[in-house]
Amino acid sequence: MNKAVFLDRDGVINEERKDYVKTIKEFQVFDDVPKAIKQLKKLGFIVIVITNQSAVNRGIITLETLNEIHMELQKILKENNTSIDKFYFCPHKPDENCQCRKPNPEMLIRAAQDYNIDMKKSVMIGDSLTDIQAAHKAGCKGILLEKNQTLLQIVNSMVDDLL
Ligand SMILES: [Mg+2]
Ligand SMILES: [Zn+2]
Question: How many domains in the chain?
C-alpha cells in the first residue's frame, strides 16, 4: 500500500483570497511549495490536492478555468522537476449538503481507494479546522498549518520525525 500527503490548496499552496481565486493571475503560489512537494516525493509520499472550490457552483469560476489553474500549478512544479499526482475538488456550495465538501471525508476516501493508500501512514495538511476534521474522519493524521508557517516548514518537521 501507498502512503500519501493530502494538501489543501488555498492558504497552503497558494495565497487564499476572500473573493476566491478566479484566474491564473490570482493564483499566487508560495515560493517554497515546489521544494516542499519535491521533498515529500523524495520521502515516498504520493501528493494529492484535496480542495473545496464552491466558486464553481457559485458561478464565479468555470470548471475549465479551475483546470487551467491546476495545470498552471503543474507547470510551475514541472519547472522544478516535480508534480502533484492528482487533484480532487468539491464544486458544491455549503447549502448543497454534498458528501465531498470538507469537513466531509469523501474526497480523501475516494483518493485512498483510487491510489491504494494506507491512511494510517498518511497525513492531510491544511490551514482550516475543516481540513483536520476531514482527515480524522478519513482515518489519517491532520496537521494544521498556522498563519505564520509555510508548507516547507511542516514538511521539514515531518522529515525530522521520520529520521
Ligand atoms: Mg485552505
Ligand atoms: Zn461536494
Answer: 1
